[in-house]
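Same chain as my last thread, 131 residues:
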Amino acid sequence: MLKFVLWLVGAVIMMMGLNVGLGGITTLGWLSSVDFVRMSNATVYGVQDNHFRFLGGVWFGVGLLFFVGGFRLGSVRSTLIYLCLLVGLAGLFRLSGLDMEIVFGAAILPSFLAEIVGFPALAYWLWRVTK
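reply #2:
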């Protein structure tokens, strides 16, 4: 069961990484419409878009590690535990926007809960099952 969860988590994260990594700020539209932002400065937009693409690539790599964990858990176990805790920490940064209506709204709350509850729980599962 743990291996299946790692494959599933990895596949979902890789899909999200590709969505941003290949689509930039506006994404490829796999999770929302692409018309949610308007460019006012092409140069600044291009730079920020490039940074978003990099972050999408990082997220794809994180997903790839989870996916690989489904096949080679022994070699990446501690890395996956740390990544789970990192995702939990990163989820807390959602609170820095100081708009709790957005954080606790229907569009963000499932992701937020997965990040601050689900990933730490997966870290604990990885630690318990494989220690």
